[in-house]
Each structure stands twice: as C-alpha cells, then as structure tokens.
C-alpha cells in the first residue's frame, strides 16, 4: 500500500506498544507485572461517574458546540482561577478529545514547514512525532541527572534561533517526574519574554507534585506572557479519567479559534457525556485527587529507595507525576544467553521475558540510558515487580 509520506516519518507510541505487549502476554496466560502504565490505577471517583449517568438520563447525548458546552468551559475557567490564579473568558478556552488531542490540534494550529519547536529531553513520547506531522522540526534541548532533568535559562537562550517558534514545557514531566521551581521557571520566563517564542505548557501532571513548594506556573509568575502561552491540561490523570478522553486548552483567542476550526473539520465536539463528567470533576470535591497524590508520594519514595539499592542503578528523586526514570546503562554489555544487552530497549525486553515485568525503554523518550517505571500500581505489585527486577538484574551478573 502506498501510504502517505508523512506516516513514514513517525512511529507508533512506544508506551502504548508496551500496553499491547502486556495484553498479548496475558492472553497467552503469562502473568506480567505492568510498570508501563501511563494512567492512575485508581477508579474514576464516584461523584464523577454519577454526573455522567445523570447526563445520560437527561439525554445529553447529542452534538455539543465544537469546543464544548458553556458548562464545561465555565468549569475550566473556574478551575484555572481557583488552582492557578488565572483568568480566562469563554472565548479563550476549548475542549478536545483528551490532552493528547489538545496538543495535536494546537501543534497543527501553530506549527508548519520550517518552524522549530524546542523540546526539553527526555520528553513525552508524542511531542516530537506530533511536531513532525505538522511539517515542523523538533529541536531537542538535552538535560541530564546533573541538571535534575531540567533545562536552564542559559541553555534556552542559546538554543533560540531565527526559526524557533515555541518551547514545550511539561512540569512535572513525563517521563522524569522533574518539576521546575519558581525560581527556575522565572528565569526561563525572562528569556522567553525577551524572545518571540510561544510556550505550550503541558500541565497534565500538575496535581501530582510531592514537594508542594514547587507548584509554579509560568503564567502566574509572568502574566505578561499571557498572549504567548497556551495552557494545556486534561482530566485524564488528575481525576483518573484516562478513558473518558477530555482535554482542554486555555490561551489567546486566535489560537483557540484555530483549534476549534480544525476540530470542526475532524472530530467535532469531544464526547458529550465526558464533558458533563468533567464539569463534576473540575467543580466537585477535590478530595480524591489529594488521596491519590498522597498514595503516589508513598509509592515514589518506596520505588526510589528500592531502585537505589540495586547495584548499577542510579535514580533521581522525581518531584512529581507517577514515574521514575532510573539510569540502567551500567547493565549494557552484559550477556543474556547468546545475546548482548546493549540498550535500554534490550534491557526492557530482557526484563519482560525473564522477570515478567513490563517497563518502557528510554529510547522513545529521547534518553537511551534510562527506563521509565510507572508507580501507578499498588504497593504490593510494586514490591513484587521490583523483587523480580532485582533478581533478574542480579542474574545478569554485573556491577
Ligand atoms: C505529558 C503528557 N501530556 C499529555 C498527555 C495526554 O493525556 P490525555 O490525552 O489522556 O489527556 C499525557 C499522557 O500520557 C502525558 O504524559
């Protein structure tokens, strides 16, 4: 089949591929521990489900305005005011079929041939391929453990060139869990202010932050950037609603209109029931979010402590999200039967087959010396999975 050329430029999401592999192994009756999950293991809170059921009963089963109902937009506006101290109008927010779709729409609204998009690496798997789909060019800004997996203002300043169109900020980050401090973010904001850069702030993990003093938003710190920042968020992670598919954007009206135009010619409105559920999520009790965050914090500490006790593994303490991103390169060069493990991908395959633990190799995140472990699973499973990983790494006989 002669497929469109642009499809040859991208690859399937590696994180979703792990989910597929796990499902396939489970269908064969093999018990696999899944550390690949990019979603909370908690159920959607009851009051949100009830709101969805009520919406169904009330017959809210028809098309809605393309960018969402006035109710869901009002709920988003109220949330942004309450949580972020940011004021938006109805014309400055829109909803989409998940945060991923929000980003996809936004990239297509903003980027095209010749545009460079600055992406701190390691980065969430979809950013770079989504930029490529628009005809734009991802420009990676490498970070490491030494900088806490964060870019510096000086690094950003140096990277800005004539073609640079936007910077992607994702704090707390997937896959590293790194979160910018107010001070770091303020310095970055100052560089941006002196440039023409747009900012896309992907805030989907904002509620999962374990050192509370760090919860900073670039717009709160530098309101002058308001007409150059597109805020992206979603109910997926915050409210354990990944399957509902409801994401949203807030930003300059022109961008919002462009996103809605694109959406009007592609998906139309996001699911009407999910919109009603999102209203309950955003305006109802926030207690379940706190419960999840508390549990994630406990698991984070446990996983990091276990990983640090394994010879050859080093692991920064992630400030947020629900991932740890240990360095595993010390195991490169070890033997797995006839094979030599020479990459994170090889090591992940080894752990899947020999430890029955699925995790995501760092290559997809632009970081070939690391793997991503999700702790969005119970303590008991974490304990068992880490036992299996530890034993399997010991068998590789290194370090
Ligand atoms: C950094 C980041 N942004 C956006 C998303 C999109 O999430 P959703 O489409 O479920 O809202 C994800 C999901 O994994 C993510 O990790």
Using brief descriptors, characterize the structure shown.
globular; 14 strands; 399 residues; 13 helices; 3-stranded antiparallel beta sheet; binds pyridoxal-5'-phosphate; Aspartate Aminotransferase, domain 2; Aspartate Aminotransferase, domain 1; alpha/beta; 7-stranded mixed beta sheet
Low-pLDDT stretches: none
Total strands: the figure is: 14
Any idea what the radius of gyration is?
A: 21 Å
- Count every helix, treating DSSP H or I runs of 4 or more residues as helices: 13
Q: Tell me, rounded to a whole number, the average pLDDT.
A: 95
CATH fold title of the largest domain: Aspartate Aminotransferase, domain 2
**Main sheet record:** 7 strands, mixed
SSE run:
HEHHEHEHEHEHEHEEHHHEEEHEEEH
CATH superfamily of the largest domain: Type I PLP-dependent aspartate aminotransferase-like (Major domain)
Helix content: 25-40%
Tell me the strand percentage band.
5-15%
Whole-number total of structural domains:
2
Supply the CATH class of the largest domain.
Alpha Beta
The CATH architecture designation of the largest domain is 3-Layer(aba) Sandwich
Shape: globular
What molecules are bound to this protein? pyridoxal-5'-phosphate
> How widely separated are the two ends?
48 Å
- Structural class, by secondary structure, is alpha/beta
Strand order of the largest sheet: 2-8-7-6-5-3-4
């Amino acid at each position: 089949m002669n497929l469109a050329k642009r499809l040859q430029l991208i690859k399937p999401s590696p994180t979703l591929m792990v989910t597929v592999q796990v499902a396939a192994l489970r269908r064969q009756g093999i018990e696999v521990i899944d550390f690949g999950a990019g979603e909370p293991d908690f159920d959607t809170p009851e009051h949100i489900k009830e709101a969805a059921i009520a919406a169904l009963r009330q017959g809210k089963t028809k098309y809605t305005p393309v960018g969402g109902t006035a109710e869901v937009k009002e709920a988003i506006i109220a949330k942004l005011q309450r949580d972020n101290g940011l004021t938006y109008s109805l014309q400055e927010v829109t909803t989409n079929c998940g945060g991923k779709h929000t980003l996809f729409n936004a990239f297509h609204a903003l980027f095209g041939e010749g545009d460079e998009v600055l992406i701190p690496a390691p980065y969430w798997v979809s950013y770079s391929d989504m930029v490529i789909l628009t005809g734009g060019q991802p420009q990676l800004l490498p970070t490491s453990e030494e900088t806490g997996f964060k870019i510096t203002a000086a690094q950003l300043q140096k990277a800005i060139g004539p073609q640079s169109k936007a910077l992607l900020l994702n704090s707390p980050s997937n896959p590293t869990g790194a979160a910018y401090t107010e001070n770091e973010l303020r310095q970055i904001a100052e560089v941006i202010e002196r440039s023409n850069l747009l900012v896309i702030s992907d805030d989907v993990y904002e509620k999962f932050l374990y050192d509370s003093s760090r919860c900073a938003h670039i717009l709160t710190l530098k309101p002058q950037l308001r007409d150059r920042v597109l805020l992206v968020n979603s109910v997926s992670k915050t409210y354990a609603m990944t399957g509902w598919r409801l994401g949203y954007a807030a930003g300059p009206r022109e961008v919002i209109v462009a996103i809605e135009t694109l959406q009007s010619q592609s998906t139309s409105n996001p699911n009407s029931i999910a919109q009603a559920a999102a209203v309950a999520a955003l305006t109802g009790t926030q207690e379940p979010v706190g419960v999840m965050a508390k549990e994630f914090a406990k698991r984070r500490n446990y996983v990091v402590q276990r990983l640090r006790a394994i010879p050859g593994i080093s692991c920064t303490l992630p400030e947020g999200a629900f991932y740890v991103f240990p360095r595993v390169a010390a195991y490169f060069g070890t033997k797995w039967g006839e094979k030599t493990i020479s990459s994170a991908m090889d090591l992940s395959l080894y752990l899947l087959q020999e430890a029955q633990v699925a995790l995501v190799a760092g290559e997809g995140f632009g970081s070939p010396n690391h793997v991503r472990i999700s702790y969005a699973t119970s303590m008991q499973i974490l304990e068992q999975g880490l036992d299996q990983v530890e034993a399997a790494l010991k068998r590789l006989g290194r370090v």
